[in-house]
């Protein structure tokens, strides 16, 4: 049997509920881009927003109708049941859903008696009428309707009979699915399973599940609902959402496909999930969590030296799945716990062939240990490690310039204004260049001066940007004084790399990390070192 | 019945397994600080590391024996069973555990036949003998022993009989608990529950659970194990750990206490979890996730709108728990971080009596919110917060000196030597003093110059020492540029205090934090401000 998107609905609400996340602000263009990524991932349903409720979503639906050619997904509009005491056909917001052009609509409805009373301020019977009329109206107009039963689990605890009645009324009026929403996110898997099981028996409705991560169980709650019989799963990319976020749809999908052997995406689509998760993070401009299950950059990263030797024998000894199944990669982290095996694996990953040269590998291991004992760390500084590798492999560290002298000054004057300047003398391609720069700190000024000086010889440095900068004071070991460790992240718009510098002096440590950063940036662009 | 830490073991492994996280690198001092926070949180057991396996952990255990006075927790050393084919008493690493001074030891043992063969490279029988001998040896020497059954769930799938035999052998030799480890993190709650249930029936051992988050289910897996009868739970603060991290201990604790009504921490300790989670994040220098369950700054944040009016009627309509139960706050706005209650509690803790003055408390709350929106944080800067409190309570910020002007220069000459100098002009007790200093970096030189200048007037400054210094770059909000946050820890030999400075320029931010540090140091010594 081949994939059938109707068997288990993979329903994405990144564009609506995900957008409720603090700090997340999507333009209409962003939403179109994300919708295309979602369609590439192969989700069955894309909830686009609430047309009529805010102008941005109205515009998005109008544009989507024209521009969005979906290969796989069904486009869904979200909205509420009609207001109390009006006719469905006269309800303006319901009209906007009807006119949105979306083939399907998800209607949110109250299923918790207390919310009907206190938030909706109407009677329990009128709420049922609102659900019945609204579902029927949209069905009559030719749209497919899903019901989001808001606060369902809390409502079920408080008044089971009423919560069940909400589901029955919606199904009788023609809804396809009733999605049970843990709106406040306080549930645990055992209760979710019990409730889904009971509702299924009591209503025979097709059930869906919509979870939030307030107990850290959004994924497990969704899995528990599916095990209990739900066949429609709502979630968001990267678990975006209000408070602690919604259920992370990619993790659920990977668990269903890889652990439970259920086909819920088109064939091979899961392998796109790493790429798509990161591409969407670029759109939202929210740094992806390195620890995200399956798609985090650390999800298949190994640190301990003990593990590394066994991983060489068989990666499955220390990995729950093949990282390629979600488009991710195994990564070895170089740390003071590292031995020969992890250095070898790491070098392969970086594309530097050590050719099994035991003496060379031994030299690299010794050098890493010696440098780590002085405060270096390479697990967060791949680029500095690669420079070290190339130096040991070729006998010469890749170099495009030599810094001869530098001077930074920072001054606060009596008027409380702060001025920072740097002067750098550098030799490159046989020329000595002296240059200066200003900045919002000595390191920034140094960086500006250095790049300004090298700009004529290496114009590609203009595209580089310092994207992160971290400083740590390390206590002295074995009687030496404290040292400063600086980690720098640099980007050229296509990718990022990390470098490290260690010195007693923070500016000198920064200069070291910046020198590595620019050197590696030039290597990346294909420049041959001097 | 009151709290009994033996009823359900809350076992923290932040300092050992948590430290395996990519990018996490803890100094000995960091580990001591985190251990104190863990003890404040009230966990029953703190796993400190692997003494004997690396010099840093050996040093930590030696220092912990002298310096760590734990109120509640038992200190635990981690290590492996003896090597194949040696006597337990002759095994060097086992000897280091025995001599660590820790009252309890957790021994990791292979329970998956394939790992015995491929990673340990010994026979199944010898592995059992290694477990038996090692547990017995440490028990005979008077230590309590826990067993970490590595790869237990994978091992159980492959060879149930052998996995069970590992548990039986350990218990017969005198282990207290066998913790079943989902080392590769691939399990889901249903399988965890089934296996724990079966092992309990087959061995009658006291069982523990150790989960990783590779399927996004670490918390739910731990909860499932407890429901199936496990009474010892391993996890880490903020879910730190290799790959996708370990189970987040605070989320598990909150779920057990608030949802399952099990008392697993001393009374009121859970209310400290927000503070401790964030204080530890400052030590690790890893930005805390705003979406972290219970303790994330977004965990109880609501976007204004529909929810707002209902929340005014009754917050429980839109919150699964009272945020105060974990020391967190409900927030309606992005910058709305501090609540009145926490400001009042914090002030009491610092010994500043706000006398229930609502207007004064409101002023402090507003000021904290405004400053946090600019990048300040007071979680890890008590001393700066106390200066702010005193300023608002008395109308004048405590002050012993005014810095009029400063200048720092750092230079690297052609001979590769680095010289840093600072010049500071300061007014104190009506005198203008200009002074200079050198140092191993501009901040150190500034500190030296300032203290040298003030030395005649305040000789007690000579006893102060800068003991930690951290820098973080914060991305700009609302279109402003990036700012730098500096946290400084200062000691006078009797205690430490922490101060914060925020500025575009790292030297200016440092100057701000240092000014607070010296001011607070003089207050501590009983000096009356000008």
Automatic annotation (TrEMBL), chains A, B:
Family annotation (Gene3D superfamilies): 1.10.238.260, 3.30.160.270, Aldolase class I (3.20.20.70)
This protein's pathway reads: Amino-acid biosynthesis; L-isoleucine biosynthesis; 2-oxobutanoate from pyruvate: step 1/3
**What reaction does this enzyme carry out catalytically?**
pyruvate + acetyl-CoA + H2O = (3R)-citramalate + CoA + H(+)
Which GO molecular function annotations are given, in alphabetical order?
(R)-citramalate synthase activity; 2-isopropylmalate synthase activity
Q: Which UniProt keywords apply?
A: Amino-acid biosynthesis, Branched-chain amino acid biosynthesis, Isoleucine biosynthesis, Transferase
**Which InterPro entries does UniProt cross-reference here?**
2-isopropylmalate_synth_dimer (IPR013709), AIPM/Hcit_synth_CS (IPR002034), Aldolase_TIM (IPR013785), Citramal_synthase (IPR005675), LeuA/HCS_post-cat (IPR054691), LeuA_allosteric_dom_sf (IPR036230), PYR_CT (IPR000891)
Per its UniProt record, what Pfam families does this chain match? HCS_D2 (PF22617), HMGL-like (PF00682), LeuA_dimer (PF08502)
Highest taxon in the source lineage: Bacteria
- Using the UniProt record, name the top-level EC class of this enzyme in a single word: transferase
Q: What is its EC number?
A: 2.3.3.21
Q: Which NCBIfam families match?
A: citramal_synth
Query: What family is this?
Result: Belongs to the alpha-IPM synthase/homocitrate synthase family.
The family database entries (PANTHER family) matched by this protein are listed as: (R)-CITRAMALATE SYNTHASE, ALPHA-IPM SYNTHASE/HOMOCITRATE SYNTHASE
Name used for this protein in its record: Citramalate synthase
The lineage is:
Bacteria, Bacillati, Actinomycetota, Actinomycetes, Candidatus Nanopelagicales
């Amino acid at each position: 049997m081949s994939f059938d998107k109707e068997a288990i609905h993979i329903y994405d609400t990144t564009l609506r509920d995900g957008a409720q996340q603090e700090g997340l602000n999507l333009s209409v263009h962003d939403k179109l881009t994300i919708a295309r990524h979602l369609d590439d991932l192969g989700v069955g349903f894309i909830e686009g927003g609430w047309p009529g409720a805010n102008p941005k979503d109205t515009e998005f639906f109008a544009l989507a109708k024209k521009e969005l050619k979906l290969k796989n997904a069904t486009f869904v509009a979200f909205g509420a049941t009609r207001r109390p005491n009006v006719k469905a056909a006269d309800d303006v917001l319901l009209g906007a859903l009807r006119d949105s052009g979306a083939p399907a609509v998800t209607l949110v409805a109250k299923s918790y008696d207390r919310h009907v009373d206190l938030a909706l301020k109407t009677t329990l019977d009128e709420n049922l009428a609102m659900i019945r009329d609204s579902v029927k109206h949209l069905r009559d107009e030719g749209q497919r309707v899903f019901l989001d039963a808001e606060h369902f689990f809390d409502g079920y605890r408080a008044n089971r009979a009423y919560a069940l009645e909400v589901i029955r009324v919606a199904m009788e009026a023609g809804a396809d699915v009733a999605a049970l929403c843990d709106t406040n996110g306080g549930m645990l898997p055992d209760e979710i399973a019990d409730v889904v099981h009971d509702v299924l028996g009591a209503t025979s409705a097709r059930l869906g599940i919509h979870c939030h991560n307030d107990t850290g169980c959004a994924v497990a709650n969704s899995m528990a609902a599916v095990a209990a019989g739900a066949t429609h799963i709502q979630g968001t990319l990267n678990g975006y959402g209000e408070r602690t976020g919604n259920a992370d749809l990619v993790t659920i999908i990977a668990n269903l496909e890889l652990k439970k052997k259920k086909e819920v995406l088109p064939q091979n689509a899961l392998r796109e999930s790493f790429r798509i998760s990161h591409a969407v993070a670029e759109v939202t401009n929210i740094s992806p969590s390195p620890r995200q299950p399956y798609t985090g950059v650390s999800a298949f990263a190994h640190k301990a030296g003990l593990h590394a030797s066994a991983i060489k024998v068989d990666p499955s000894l220390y990995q729950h799945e093949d990282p390629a199944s979600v488009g991710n990669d195994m990564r070895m982290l170089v740390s003071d716990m590292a031995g020969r095996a992890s250095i070898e694996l790491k070098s392969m990953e970086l594309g530097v062939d050590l050719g099994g040269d035991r003496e060379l590998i031994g030299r690299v291991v010794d050098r890493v240990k010696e440098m780590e004992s002085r405060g270096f760390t390479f697990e967060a500084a791949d680029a500095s490690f690669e420079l070290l590798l190339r130096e040991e492999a070729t006998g010469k560290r890749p170099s495009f310039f030599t810094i001869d002298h530098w001077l930074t000054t920072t001054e606060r004057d009596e008027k409380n204004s702060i001025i920072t300047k740097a002067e750098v003398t550098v030799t490159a391609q046989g020329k000595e260049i002296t240059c200066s720069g200003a900045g919002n700190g000595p390191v920034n000024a140094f960086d500006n001066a250095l790049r300004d000086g090298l700009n004529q010889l290496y114009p590609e440095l203009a595209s580089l940007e310092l994207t992160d900068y971290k400083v740590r004071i390390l206590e002295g070991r074995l009687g030496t004084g404290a040292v400063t460790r600086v980690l720098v992240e640099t980007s050229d718009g296509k990718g990022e790399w990390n470098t490290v510098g260690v010195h007693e002096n923070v500016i000198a440590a920064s200069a070291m990390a910046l020198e590595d950063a620019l050197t590696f940036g030039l290597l990346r662009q294909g420049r041959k070192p001097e």
